[in-house]
Amino acid sequence: MKTTILKNISLSIFTLLMVTTLLVSCGKSNDSKPAGATATSHKVVYKATTTNGTIDIVDYTTATGDQSTVTGISVTSYTSAEITVPTSVGSVVFAVTGGGSSASSTITVQIYVDGKLVKSNSGTGTSLSAGTSYSF
């Protein structure tokens, strides 16, 4: 019973985090592109790690701009395959949820674009969740 309640809370937090991240990422302007920028796509890799916990749900932007969700994985680290994302997609979102064994458990998410770490975020506790987004 307690596990079901924690999973429902985690899923609710995860959903809220994804919606908030998506809304924030849509509000960014692309006016800050450097002059002469001609890239038509970017290579994106999503990474997540935990300390004293597990990753249960992973949600990320695909090459077509859609969201993909992986559930029931129960791992301590996750690394996606390299995804070629066209610049027309505009932004990517990455979020994970899981469970920690103590209040000091941590989860960290990272987005790598073209081999460079561009965004990172962390969360702590027994109900772990973290997400971040990046606009090209």
Would you kindly provide a written description of the structure presented here, covering whatever features stand out?
- The protein has 136 residues and is α+β, with helices and mostly antiparallel strands.
- It has one domain.
- The chain has 1 helix and 9 strands.
- Strands 1, 4, 5, 7 and 8 form a 5-stranded antiparallel β-sheet that branches. It has a 4-stranded antiparallel β-sheet with strand order 3-2-6-9, covered by helices on one side.
The count of strands amounts to 9
What percent of the residues sit in helical stretches (DSSP H or I)? 10-25%
Q: Secondary-structure element order, as H and E?
A: HEEEEEEEEE
Head-to-tail CA distance between termini: 43 Å
The main sheet comes to: 5 strands, antiparallel
Question: What's the domain count?
Answer: 1
Q: What gross morphology would you assign?
A: elongated
What is the number of helices? 1
Rg, rounded, reads 15 Å
The class by helix and strand makeup works out as alpha+beta
Strand content: over 45%
Question: What keywords describe this structure?
Answer:
5-stranded antiparallel sheet, 136 residues, alpha+beta, single chain, 53% strand, 4-stranded antiparallel sheet
Secondary structure layout:
Blueprint: H1 2-26, E1 41-51, E2 53-61, E3 67-75, E4 77-79, E5 83-86, E6 91-100, E7 106-113, E8 116-124, E9 127-135
Antiparallel strand pairs: 1-4, 1-5, 1-7, 2-3, 2-6, 6-9, 7-8
